[in-house]
Amino acid sequence: MEPLASRIRPKSLDEFIGQEHLAGEGKPIRVAIENKHLFSFILWGPPGVGKTTLGKIYANELNAEFHNLSAVSAGKDDVRKVIETAKISLEKSNKPTMLFLDEIHRFNKAQQDFLLPYVETGIITLIGATTENPSFEVISPLLSRCRVFILKELTDSEMYEIINRTGIPMDTAAKDWLVAMANGDARQAITMIDDTNNLYKNVTVETLKSTLQNKHLRFDKKGEEHYNIISAFIKSMRSSDVNAAVYYLARMIDAGEDPKFIARRMVVFASEDVGMAQPTALLVANEVFSSVEKVGLPECAINLAHGVVFLASAKKDRRAYDALQKAMEDVKKYGNLPIPLNIRNAPTKLMKDLGYGKGYKKYGNESFLPEKIKDSKYFE
Fold first, then answer.
1. Hey, which bits of the chain come out as E strands?
2. Contact at 8 Å (CB) between 82 and 124?
3. Which pTM does this prediction carry?
4. Of 3.90.940.10, 3.90.79.10, 3.10.20.30, 3.40.50.300, which CATH number belongs to 4-150?
5. Contacts of 331 (CB under 8 A, 6+ apart)
6. 178, exposed or middle or buried, with CB in 10 Å at 0-12, 13-18, 19+?
7. What is the pLDDT of residues 16-56, one digit of tens each?
8. Tens of pLDDT along 76-126?
C-alpha cells in the first residue's frame, strides 16, 4: 500500500503548506515557476519541511524529467545514468532534466566535481537538498552555480493543517501530542499517524505513544534526534554541565553524526557563549576542528571530548554575541545610515574638498556611529 505521506503529497504550490517566504505570492520559487525560469538551486533546512515536495512541484510545473537520488546510496554511476538520459531527452524533445539530490552534503568533493560540468552546461538542472550548511559541505564552484534557499521549521498552525489533511480522524489531544512530538517535522508526524493507524486502527494519544515505543517503528537518527541531541549538547555546555555535554557528544558519535558538524558547532559556541570570558576558547575550538579533519573517526572523538570538557568548564560571556544582535536590529530598523564624514575614505581631492576624513582623530573619544544612533550602546 502506498504510504500516507506519498498519498497526500501536494502536487502544486497552491496545495503546499509552509515556507511562505519561498512559495507565497511574489516569492522566489513561485515567481520562478510562473515565469518558467529554469535554474539550479539548493534547499537547506531541517527534515520534513517540504524540500522534496518543492523539488517535485518545480520539476512538474516546468515539464521537466525528474530524477531523485540520495547522496547516501548513490554514486557516480547513478549520476552518469541520469546524465545520459538527460542528453537523450534534450536531443529528442528538448525537455529539461532535473536531478534532485537528497542529502547532497554526503557527496564527497570528487563526486561533486563530477556533477559540475553538467550543471554548468545545463545538461542537468540540479536541486540539492541538505540539512547542513551548504557553504561548508558543497564545493565552491558548484555552490556558485546554485541559488540557496533556506527552509524553516513548520509552525504549529501549519502542522495542524497538515495533520488535518491526512483525513484520519483523531481528537484534539492526539493532534496536540503529534505537534509537540514532531517539532516542525511534517514527515515525522505523518509517518507516526500512518503507522499508528495501521497498527491500531484508532489514533489516540495512547496508541500514538504505543507506536512510538513499538520496535517496528524506526526513526532516522539523522532526523528528529539529530536536532534534539545537538540542542541538548549545546544547552549542556552553556549551563556548564560537563557530564551531560560529554554524554550527548557520545550519543551523536554513536548515531553516526558527522564529527565536523559537531566541531563546527563548538567553534560557534566558543564565540557565542564563552566569548570575552576566555577569548582563547576560539583557538581551542579551531584546533579541535583541525584535529577532526586530520585524524578522523574513531580517534577524533577524543579530540572532541577534550574540546567539549574545556568549553563546558569555561566561564561564559555572551556580550559580543548580544552586541551583534543589537547592532543587527538597528541595521534592519534604520537601513544604510550615512557614515560620518570624518571617518569616510578620501582617496581623491574632490572627496577631501567635500570634507571626507576631515577632523578624524585616531584616538579620540567621540562616537563613530552614524548621527541617528550615535548614543547607541551594543557591547556592555
1. 41-44, 65-70, 97-102, 125-130, 147-150
2. yes
3. 0.61
4. 3.40.50.300
5. none
6. buried
7. 999 999 999 999 999 999 999 999 999 999 889 999 999 99
8. 999 999 999 999 999 999 999 999 999 998 898 899 999 999 999 999 999
